[in-house]
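Task 17 of the worksheet. Students: predict the tertiary structure of the chain below and write it out as structure tokens. Keep your answer in the requested format; marks are given for formatting as well as content.
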Amino acid sequence: MKQRLPSWFKQEIPEKETVSLQSLLGEFGLQTVCQEAMCPNIVYCFKRKKATFMILGPACTRSCAFCAVAKSAGALAPDPGDEDQRISEAVKEMGLKYAVITSVTRDDLPDGGAGAFARTVKAIKDANKDVKVEVLIPDFEGRVGSLKIVLDSHPNVLAHNIETVKRLYPEVRPGADYQLSLDILAKAKELSPAVFTKSSLMLGLGETEAEVIEAMHDLTGSGCDILTLGQYLAPSDSHYPVKEFVSIEEFERLRNIGIAVGFKVVLSGPLVRSSYKAEEVFEEIKSV
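Model answer:
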């Protein structure tokens, strides 16, 4: 039986600021993960002129069971040549001081899309050196060279989401590898110790508390600085089902456990997503 959403998932009503930002993004021909992944915070963020830009097209080469982003049904378009400049212009037009860039997974590209990430970070920083940039990267199939390309563009935060606990990977992330994701985060910290690293777990997929705590230890063991914890919401009946709605109190308890485990900052709550309040999290970790 499909579970009803708890009351805390009540959404804000779209206002003119939301429509205005959608129009602006359309004018620049840009995509956001907010729209493509059906994020529950889209109205909240768009009203505040916050968005996570999604580069390298609308279709992913992976088939994760939880994700609403379109899957590739054949050959994918090449990297759009001027996407980095259009994002840079949009960042300036929006007046952003903190920009978040993510992508679909592009296993079809020799560098996994790393060059596009680097060009986008550089374009943003060339236009305004004071803008901070967070990148949420795929695993690049473990290519250290691709990771180094991204890090050499000097992002302020490098995020890579493990998404769920190890036991659930075959069902939830069949095209990914739990240890490889941990290795990517560890290598990023090794190559660029000054860059803050970040990861995210969805809860409500059937994981146990012991497995969540084990994943926390695995992440801090890989040098991960920031953790976000949020409630999984199935995009449709054909996606992986929600097994449990985690209470607000449990999210707060897990936040405290995360801090005790060793994360510098933990953002935890039903509506939390990897890029939710990213700028505020960055300001918090700088003061830790």
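Marker's comment: Residues 167 and 207 are 8 Å apart (CA to CA). The domain at 7-286 is CATH 3.20.20.70 (TIM Barrel).
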